[in-house]
Amino acid sequence: MQLTITNAHRFLQLLERMRHQRAGPALERLGALGLTHSHMRLLRMLAPDHKLAMKEIADRLQLTPPSVTALTRRLVATGLIERRHHVDDSRVVLLSLTDAGRDLHQQLYHEQLQAMANLLAGLSDEEQQLFLDLLDRAVTFASGGSPDRKCPQSRYLAET
To answer: What is the pLDDT along the chain (160 residues), one digit of tens a residue?
Structure first.
């Protein structure tokens, strides 16, 4: 158990080091607009052309409807999303990305993709696969998955 705590501490330190790497222009723009990671999650949820009801967004983000209203207010004010009433039920408010929201989401996605590619570039193809398999297993277990789930066999494991 002590080794797990030590490794957890190291993992937190590594995540913190990653967080302090230079942000790309889209992420800096997000911050300049006063937007947070939660706003980014909502942009991702609506991309590229989804129209979602406030209730569905609240359920997916595990937030209360008033919290989603506050979250969306800033995105509407910055012109990144728009609110429309459902055609068949005017009580239902649907949210979707504007062109500016779609553009920002695309920029954010490409910056994140490049950052992850840079992270993986220091590993061989086999090491990348092993790293991702192990991370998948850890995330699955932490999300309530079975601890007996085995990591898919990787060529790297067979070679070592």
So the answer is: 889 999 999 999 998 888 777 777 877 888 888 898 889 999 999 999 999 999 999 999 999 989 999 999 999 999 999 999 999 998 899 999 999 999 999 998 998 898 889 889 999 999 999 999 999 999 999 888 876 655 555 444 444 4
Span 25-120: which CATH code?
1.10.10.10
Q: Of 15, 38, 9, 26, which Cα lies nearest the Cα of 109?
A: 26
Q: Please return the burial class of 83, using the count of CB atoms within 10 Å of its CB with bins 0-12, 13-18 and 19+.
A: middle
Helices 37-46 & 54-61 angle (0-180, nearest 10): 120
Quote the DSSP letter at residue 22.
Answer: P
Task: Compute the Cα dihedral for 98, 99, 102, 107 and give only its sign.
Answer: negative
**Domains of the chain: which residue ranges?**
25-120, 122-160
